[in-house]
Design a protein that fits this description.
The chain has 134 residues and is mainly α. It has a single domain (29-129), classed as Alpha Horseshoe (Leucine-rich Repeat Variant). The chain has helices spanning 2-20, 31-45, 50-62, 69-78, 82-95, 98-110, 114-129. Helix 4 (69-78) packs parallel to helix 6 and helix 5 (82-95) runs parallel beside helix 7 (114-129). The longest helix is centred in the N-terminal third of the chain and has 19 residues, at 2-20. The N and C termini lie far apart (29 Å).
Length: 134
C-alpha cells in the first residue's frame, strides 16, 4: 500500500498544479496583496500540518517567492515526511534561486530516503534542461 501513496501523491500534485495554474498568479494580484499572500503561505510552511505545508510550498513556487527559499530549504532538510521534502525540493527548483537549487542537488546525493534522492535528481535534471516551468 505504501508503494502507491507517493506516486499517487506526486501525480495528484502535478495534475492539480496544471489545472489550477493556466497562467502565473503573480500577474493577477498587486504587490501588497502578494506580500500578504506570501506571508500567509510562509506561516503554512511552519504549521506542522503536512497537507498545508505541501500546499503552501506549491503556491510559493508558483509565486516564485525568493523569501521562501530559506524556509523551504529548512523543510527539505528537516521534515520527517518524504512527501514534504519532495514538495519542498520541487518548489525550490521552480523558484530557481541558486541556494535552493544547490540544496536540491545536495539532497539528490545525501538524503536518507531513496525516493527523495530520486525525485531531487529528477527535479535537478529538469532544472538543468530548463523544464521547470512545465
Amino acid at each position: 500500500m505504501k508503494k502507491f501513496v507517493l506516486p499517487f501523491f506526486l501525480f495528484s500534485l502535478i495534475l492539480s498544479t496544471g489545472f489550477m495554474y493556466a497562467g502565473s498568479p503573480s500577474g493577477s494580484v498587486s504587490a501588497a496583496q502578494k506580500e500578504v499572500i506570501v506571508e500567509s503561505l510562509l506561516n503554512g510552511l511552519s504549521s506542522g500540518n503536512m497537507g498545508l505545508m505541501v500546499s503552501s510550498a506549491q503556491f510559493l513556487a508558483e509565486y516564485k517567492s525568493v523569501r521562501s527559499v530559506i524556509p523551504l530549504m529548512q523543510m527539505l532538510h528537516e521534515s520527517e515526511n518524504e512527501e514534504s521534502r519532495i514538495a519542498a525540493a520541487l518548489a525550490l527548483v521552480k523558484i530557481g534561486d541558486s541556494r535552493g537549487v544547490f540544496a536540491v542537488r545536495q539532497a539528490a546525493h545525501f538524503d536518507e530516503s531513496e525516493q527523495v534522492r530520486d525525485m531531487c535528481m529528477k527535479f535537478y535534471c529538469a532544472y538543468l534542461c530548463g523544464k521547470t516551468d512545465q
